[in-house]
Each structure stands twice: as structure tokens, then as C-alpha cells.
Amino acid sequence: MSDSTKIPQKTPPLELHACMGLNACKGHGWSGNNDCAGTGDCATNRHPCHTLNDCKGQGGCGLFGTTVEFCTPGQNDCSFQGSCGTPILASRYITQGPNKGRSVWLLARKLFEERMAKARRTAGPPPAGQENGPTTEYVANFNPPASQSCGNSGERYCSYAFENHDNERIERRKEFIEQSKKDFPNTIKNCDCDS
After folding, report:
1. What confidence score (pLDDT) does residue 4 get?
2. Which pTM value belongs to this model?
């Protein structure tokens, strides 16, 4: 793909958030082209690893951090408290605790929807085809590419299932997402998100 077909970031971004579908308002996605809350196309702030976020709400979670932090992706209260890098790809999974092996993005989206409901705001769906979080194939279209989180760990894909144009790995990602959806009630219970 040539650089002319890549999706540029709106400069400056209107809201700093950890991933696609976690934006609070219209025009606050990576490209600025989204119509409402929850429909943004990518993270507007990127950082490579645990505690390297500049602001509130930018933690990714999944690979580095504590079990408690893994229950609050995109919910950190201030700078340098975010767990893991951003964006949160569809295949990123929680690496420890009772939710080990489950989807980080699905939990981040659920917490975002609860925040919007509490504020009496409506959130639209994520971009079509990315309803379970952004894939590496999808984020490769962003300029600069959005798949660099956790790069400092020495492995570009970090806690993500490898998925670049490999049918077996893409199938494994689908199975992981479906299992995470099935296990989601237990994920929420383990995180005590209902209290």
C-alpha cells in the first residue's frame, strides 16, 4: 500500500484516547471523520508500553501491569498510570490473573459504553468489520502505522496473536474473540465492574 492511500491523523487530535471505538464525541477519532461517540477509527494517542502515557484514559493493558490494571483498559486516572501501550488491537489478551487469555479491547469497549450510559450519552458502533477491535490489517492503513504499541518489548506484536495475512493465525484470532465473548460475563464478574 502506498503512503497516499494511508489514513492521516487529524492534527491536532481533539481528544486523546486509547483505541478505536473509545472516543467520546463526533470527530474525535484518528481521522476526525467519525459521526458520533464510539465510532472513531483509531487511537488518537499512541505510546509503546506500560506507564508511558501522557494523560488520563490512555492506558491499553494486557501485557504489562497488575491484575487490577488489566480490569481498567482506557480508564487510568492520569499520566504515567496507564497499563500497556496503545492502540489495543483485537487480538491483545490479558496475560495474568483470573481473566488471563481474554480480550482487552472487548473489556475496554464495555467500560467505555458504561461511562457513556452513566453520562446519558449514546455511543455508536465501531467501524464496520472491526466490531471486536482493530486488527493489525486494519491499523496498517493509518499514517503513521498504528501497530507499534509494545514495540519496546522487543517483539512488535507483543501480546497479540500474529495475524498478518496468515489464514491460520486469522482463524485463531477469530476463535480467541468468540471465546472471549462467551467468557465475557465472567470477565466482568472477575473485575467487579458491576459494583
Report:
1. 58
2. 0.80
